[in-house]
Amino acid sequence: MQNENYLWDIMKTMIKYLRQELKMSQQELGDKVGVTRQTINALENGRYNPSLFLAYDITQVFNKKMFKGDREKYFVMEEIFIFDDDYYR
């Protein structure tokens, strides 16, 4: 069995950093994407692996708030949810 922090070793996220840049609480982000504050906290701390749909929704919230519709500047999910490729080798 892998240790309890294995998800953090595999995936890191920019959620906390981006959320704080926007002065958005965990509760506010959770409300916008339909999950609890606890889920956002677990994502930020690597204790939860998001579904593709949740990762997409979070990415879209950040894009709309940060870039106000300028799609040329939009993040792709891989810039917010960063996986360690070495884990799978």
Structure write-up:
By secondary structure, this protein is mostly helical. It has a single domain (6-88), classed as 434 Repressor (Amino-terminal Domain) (Orthogonal Bundle), CATH 1.10.260.40. The protein is built from six helices and two strands; from the N terminus they run αβαααααβ. Helix 3 crosses helix 4. The longest helix is centred in the last third of the chain and has 16 residues, at 52-67. The radius of gyration is 13 Å and the shape is globular.
Summarize the SSE layout with pairings.
Blueprint: H1 6-10, E1 11-13, H2 15-21, H3 26-33, H4 37-44, H5 52-67, H6 77-80, E2 81-83
Helix pairs in contact: 3-4
CATH topology: 434 Repressor (Amino-terminal Domain)
Whole-number mean pLDDT: 86
Unreliable parts:
1-8
Q: What CATH architecture would you give?
A: Orthogonal Bundle
Please count the beta strands (DSSP E, at least 2 residues each). Answer: 2
What's the Cα radius of gyration?
A: 13 Å
Can you write the helix and strand succession as a string? HEHHHHHE
Report the sheet with the most strands, covering strand number, pairing sense and barrel closure: 2 strands, antiparallel
CATH superfamily descriptor: lambda repressor-like DNA-binding domains
Supply the number of structural domains: 1
Q: Reading side by side through the largest sheet, how are the strands ordered?
A: 1-2
How many separate helices?
Answer: 6
- CATH first level: Mainly Alpha
Indicate the proportion of strand residues. 5-15%
